[in-house]
Amino acid sequence: MRGIWTTDHVRQAEDRLLARTPEGALMRRAAHGVALRAARMLAEHTGAVSGRRVVLVVGAGNNGGDALWAGSFLCRRGVGVAAVLLNPEKAHPRGLDALVRAGGRVLAPGEYPQWIERADLVIDGVVGISAQGPLRADAAAVFERVDAPVLAVDLPSGVDPDTGAVDGPAVRATSTVTFGARKPVHVLNPDRCGDVTLVDIGLGPELGEPDLVVLDAADVAAAWPLPGPADNKYSQGVTGVAAGSSAYPGAAVLSAGAAVRATSGMVRYAGPVADVVRVHWPEVVATGSVFDAGRAQSWVVGPGIGTGRDGFEVLAHVLGQGVPVCADADAITILARRPEVLDARDPDTPLVLTPHDGEFERLTGAPPGPDRVTAVREAARRFDAVVLLKGHCTLVAAPDGRVLANTARGSWLATAGSGDVLSGITGALLAAGLDPWLAAGVAADVHARAGEIAAGGVPTSASAVLAAVPDALRRVRSYLP
Ligand SMILES: NC(=O)C1=CN([C@@H]2O[C@H](COP(=O)(O)OP(=O)(O)OC[C@H]3O[C@@H](n4cnc5c(N)ncnc54)[C@H](OP(=O)(O)O)[C@@H]3O)[C@@H](O)[C@H]2O)[C@@H](O)CC1
Ligand SMILES: [K+]
After folding, report:
1. Three-class SS state of 379
2. How far is the CA of 192 from the centre of ligand 1 (A)?
3. Beta-bridge partner residues of 269
4. Which strands form 150-153's sheet, in the order they lie side by side?
5. What does the cofactor section's free text say about binding (predicted)?
6. How many CB atoms lie within 10 A of CB 165?
7. C-alpha to C-alpha distances, 414 to 15, 44, 391, 411, 445, nearest whole angstrom
8. Are strands 393-397 and 403-407 parallel, antiparallel or unpaired?
9. How far is CA 119 from CA 29, 113, 145, 400, in A?
10. CA torsion sign, 205 to 208 to 210 to 215?
11. Given ligand 1 and candidates 87, 90, 96, 127, which is best to mutate, with the most ligand atoms within 8 Å of its CB?
12. Residue of the nearest CA to atom 35 in ligand 1?
């Protein structure tokens, strides 16, 4: 599991580390990492390092200091380095001195266009963790001219470091080099950061519990239940699926099918399209109603069930079974309209809610807004449920405040029925007894991988995503030590 820390926590940790480190040492370590990455980018994009041209865009603080020091290191490798100082009187004095001593130059405003247009690489040192709001007009005007790859120092300027939100002009980096700890922007807005390199500056021991986590493939593989020698079809958990209707039989087929593919436990289907489900998935034990379905160790409820009285009764029934429930789609709308349905819930049994933004707004009364982490964390507390907020970066919050982030691998999952597949996978993992927060997190991870495999670079469908779940699992298992 990889940790992510908010800027407040990074700053506190940096202060503690700075107090026992010689002055300037951390910045030079950070800048060295920037220079290494810059040299590699020059080699990749132009085939050479020496003789290439790099423009530094330097703001008023230490982020600009990192860029200036990195520029001085690049000068020593024969790179022609020139700096745009957005705020000359506040430019980091020692960094500026180092750059000039190494042979770098400071550009006059009239020289900006020709240098920026001929640059092989631009280094964004406008602002780092003290950033507030979008790029200011002077910086925005500089970046408008940039055609070269951009290397962001710590984070792309103009993007909110803690929420990843963009509310005006902002840098779109090809690559980002960050220091000490990953910050939320790196997972919440990967499109603006490009690939992210973490440079160790010795901050680790000063960082407390992370504010967010990201699962590695090995975490997903280790959490995923596989049958053991003593297992039978019941011991691995029976997943109940209450989904679909005559209008939406596909939701039942996809959700039940995903549960079949995700684990080796048994799957029961209960609903009005049992015959359709049986045709697609002969291994599913299908019956016409949740009221006469046998025991299950979890229920998936909602996809395609409708939002009327029947749907309400189905949701209330499964919430009263004393087993974990994954409520998706129509079940979330029912819950939003008639919260009294939660009265049926045994407070000790976990509930996982899997809204997209529209459903989240229905459920909570407000859209997630720019600070999605806070929004999902508050919703999880309010509903005493794990809340999985779908998006380009899917967030999973537990009622105790834990949040994990799963960054999508492209937009392949933006296809009809994709959510039904996710709910089925989540339900199967709940039936197997996984911690509900982890179940939702690993389900989102494998779902995203299956989407990428199914697509293979071209548009795909929910059925193809479902069919790719076993390959996604094989892929995560290949990361196990
Ligand atoms: N501390 C350490 O140990 C280490 C720190 N390191 C580095 O320091 C960075 C943090 O440096 P920092 O705290 O000096 O602030 P930084 O982000 O450069 O901002 C400077 C000033 O910019 C301004 N500004 C704000 N928003 C703006 C906007 N949208 N557009 C334009 N300008 C804007 C605002 O000043 P204002 O103009 O408002 O007076 C703000 O004070 C960190 O990210 C890392 O790179 C590394 O070297 C490792 C060791
Ligand atoms: K930056």
Report:
1. helix
2. 18
3. 241, 286
4. 105-106, 80-85, 53-58, 121-125, 150-153, 175-179, 195-199
5. Binds 1 potassium ion per subunit.
6. 17
7. 43, 32, 9, 6, 15
8. antiparallel
9. 25, 10, 10, 49
10. positive
11. 127
12. 60
What's the CA gap between 418 and 292, in Å, rounded? 28
Q: Which amino acid is at 466?
A: L
424 closest CA partner among 220, 294, 234, 243: 243
Query: What are 14's strand-pairing partners?
Result: none
CB 270 within 8 A of CB 290: yes
Task: Answer whether residue 409 shows pLDDT above 90.
Answer: no
The residue whose C-alpha atom lies closest to atom 5 belonging to ligand 1 is 62
> How far is residue 292's CA from residue 270's CA, in Å, rounded to a whole number?
8
The whole-angstrom separation of Cα 323 and Cα 255 is 18
Domain 217-477 belongs to what topology? UDP-N-acetylmuramoyl-L-alanine:D-glutamate ligase (3.40.1190)
Q: State the pTM of this model.
A: 0.95
Pocket test for ligand 1, best of 18, 72, 130 (most atoms within 8 A of CB): 130
List, for residues 343-379, the tens digit of each pLDDT value: 989 889 999 999 999 999 999 999 999 999 999 999 9
Does the structure show a pLDDT above 90 at 105? yes
Question: Does residue 414 carry a pLDDT above 90?
Answer: no
Rounded Cα gap, residues 346 and 364, in angstroms? 21
User: Three-class SS string for 195-263?
Assistant: EEEEECCCCHHHCCCCCEEECCHHHHHHHCCCCCCCCCCCCCCEEEEECCCCCCHHHHHHHHHHHHHHC
Q: Residues with beta carbon inside 6 Å of ligand 1?
A: 14, 18, 26-27, 30, 59-64, 66, 126-136, 139, 153-154, 158, 179, 201
CA distances from 172 to 42, 350, 370 (A): 18, 40, 18
Domain boundaries, the chain: 2-211, 217-477
Domains 2-211 and 217-477 share a fold: no
Amino acid at 264: S
- 3-class DSSP state of 81: strand
Q: How far, in Å, from the CA of 395 to the mean position of ligand 2?
A: 25
- Residue corresponding to tokens 């902002």: 170
Q: Is residue 436 helix, strand or coil?
A: helix
Q: Which CATH architecture has domain 2-211?
A: 3-Layer(aba) Sandwich (3.40)
